[in-house]
Amino acid sequence: MRSSMVVKVLIDNRHRDNKYAIEHGLSLYVELADIKCLVDVGLSDALLDNADKMDIDVAAIDYVFISHGHVDHIGGLPYFLAKNSKAIIVMHPSVLSQKFISTRNGHKDITLKTSVEAYKNRFLFLEQNTVLHKEIMVVSHLTNFYPQPKGNRFLYKMQGADLQQDDFNHELLFCFGAANILVCSGCAHSGILNLLDSVPLTINQKITSVIGGFHLLDEQENNKYETVQELNAIALELKTKYPETAFYTGHCTGDMAFLTLKKTLKEQLFPFYTGMTIVLNN
Known about the structure:
Elements: E1 4-11, E2 27-31, E3 36-39, H1 46-53, E4 63-65, H2 71-74, H3 77-83, E5 88-91, H4 94-97, E6 100-102, E7 108-109, E8 123-125, E9 130-133, E10 136-139, E11 155-159, E12 162-165, E13 173-176, E14 180-184, H5 192-197, E15 206-211, H6 228-241, E16 246-249, H7 255-265, E17 269-271, E18 277-281
Parallel strand pairs: 3-4, 4-5, 5-8, 14-15, 15-16, 16-17
Antiparallel strand pairs: 1-2, 1-18, 2-3, 6-7, 6-11, 9-10, 10-13, 11-12, 13-14
Helix pairs in contact: 6-7
C-alpha cells in the first residue's frame, strides 16, 4: 500500500493569498509517514507565522536540511531553534565557516550574521553522501558535467581578505521517499541537471518529483543570463532524461525563464508559491 508524502511551501518570493508572508527566501516542509522535515528556513522569522497558518507544528519537526550557506536559505534558523528543541540541523560544514558575498546589486554580505553557537550540539555536518533514514538521503557529491547557472558569476566567498568565486562546495541535495523519490534542490547553484545527475538511485527507484529553485534568472537592466536557446536546451534535457518527472520551481527561477521552460516541459512543470500544498505518492 502506497503512503503519501506532503510538501508545504512555507517561504517563497511569491504567494497567491496575502495572508502569508513572502520574502526573498525559501523554506519547504516535507512530511513523511514518521518524520517531519524542513528544507531551508528562509530569510527571517516569517516561516514561523506561515507555519502556524498552515497548521505545521514547528516544535515537532525532526530535521532541518540547509541546502547552502546563503542567508535567504538559513536566515530563519535562529528563530526556528528558539521554537524547536529537538530537530537535528543538517548542513555542509562550510556553511558556518565561510563568508558569502553577492555583487549582483552592489556588494552585499549574504552570510548568516546571528550566532547559532549555543545550538552546536544539534548540528550534523555532512561532506559525504549519507542515508539518514530509510526514506532520506543527503547528497554531497555533485557532478559538473553540465554548465552552472550564469547567475553564479555574482556570487563569491571570502578567502582571507580576498573575494573568491564561490565554488558551491557548501551545497547539498536532499532526497525523500522509498521507490518514488522527491528531490529538493534548494537553489540549484550547481545546475539542476548536475544535481539530478548526482542522485544515486537503486534499480527500484525513480525521481518522480523535483522541487526547488533552479537559479535561472531573468534579465535585469544590463545583467544577462541564460539565453532562450540555452533555457530550451536545459528543458529538453530535463524532458529527455526525466520524461515522467514533475518539476515544481519558484524562488530563484525567473518568471520569463519559467515560461520558456514551460514551452518544452508543458504539463511536467509547475510554479510553487508560499502557502502551496503538494501531496505525492511515496
